[in-house]
Amino acid sequence: MTTGAEQAKRSGTLLIVGCGYVGTAFGRKMAREGWEVIGTTREASRLEALAEAGITPRLWPGTPLAPMIDRADHLLVAAPPDAAGDPLIGAEEARLARAHHLAWVGYLSTTAVYGDRQGGWVDEETPPAPTSRRGRWRLAAEKAWLALHRHHGLPVHVFRLAGIYGPGRGPFAKLRRGTARRIVKPGQVFGRIHVDDIVAALAASIARPRPGRIYNLTDDLPAPPDEVIAHAATLLGLPPPPAEPFETAEMSPMARSFYGESKRVSNRRLKEELGVALRHPDYRSGLAAILEEEATGRKG
After folding, report:
1. How confident is the model at residue 299 (pLDDT cuts 50, 70, 90)?
2. Which residue segments constitute the domains of the chain, with CATH numbers given?
3. How far is CA 298 from the centre of its chain?
């Protein structure tokens, strides 16, 4: 029979800084497995949703972060950096440098750090070459976290996420509203990752920690965005939006920037080192699962 103390030791306390879409999904899973989960958010309107997911919500900035760091034995950092750098390191670098009680630290980055590869393949050994502001900020934050690992032994793991999708985040809402667009740029491909597979990868890393390691979290099928929109429309029984050539399509500079990079990202390390078998190895599987969840009302 497992005692309460043994259960707490086996699970522990997880602090999620920046508890948005991915953080909430991960926190919900860990709370269901008996972990104490604390999640920070900048938005007071998010507090109730976090509590409903089994996460103890805290506003940050606004609530002192030091006691939360001291209480946790696992830390997931999902708060985005800006031009000033990573917000958590900026606020608590000295405390993190001596946080020897932390058994695992995960940092959520992005495959945008690889920049544009004109459809070519990259893996974790490929030197980053970000072309977007977002990619440059993320790479700087990665380096800051890995420096804490090298110089102070903080058990940091970096996860470079491809395009994130899942329930409530994907092409279906735009298609139903009639606002989805099918922009066609020949040769444009990138990877995606369903939130369920992100959660599984993080849990696998906690079970098999390798501090200092970087993992790409992406599916098996890099694909053109117009192909994904067309397939989603088919699943909904709707006609696909008309094809619009990228060169002549009217888009904001931000929207156009998403088409500035094309690459295929390897997930071999994720599978071989962490033993993750993707639940949704391509967008077809992932989109079908989202519709099934909508129909059944199941929440991950």
Report:
1. low
2. 9-167+193-218+266-279 (3.40.50.720)
3. 21
